[in-house]
Design a protein that fits this description.
The protein is α/β, with parallel strands linked by helices. Helices cover 35% and strands 22% of the residues.
Length: 98
Amino acid sequence: MHDESSTALVTGASAGIGASFARLLAAEGHPLLLVARRESRLQDLATELRTEHGVRCEVLAVDLTDPESPARSTKCWPGPCVQSLDRCSTCLLYTSDA
């Protein structure tokens, strides 16, 4: 299990490589903030990861192709759940302490 004060942010988490990264990070015990446009898919994935791995998993449904979305999304992050972002992944980047 990882420090609950840090959170892995996964964009594009509703499908494909984003969902795969989320599953990998959850299996390693990282708390997650899942970001994508399709809220229902994010909620389904969050439920799966909470059930299978017992991790804290929050959902943020935003369209990151909209130039206004990143500014809006930081205002609607669940405050207590995201104190610091420890890991970030996208389709192009994955970082690990290993």
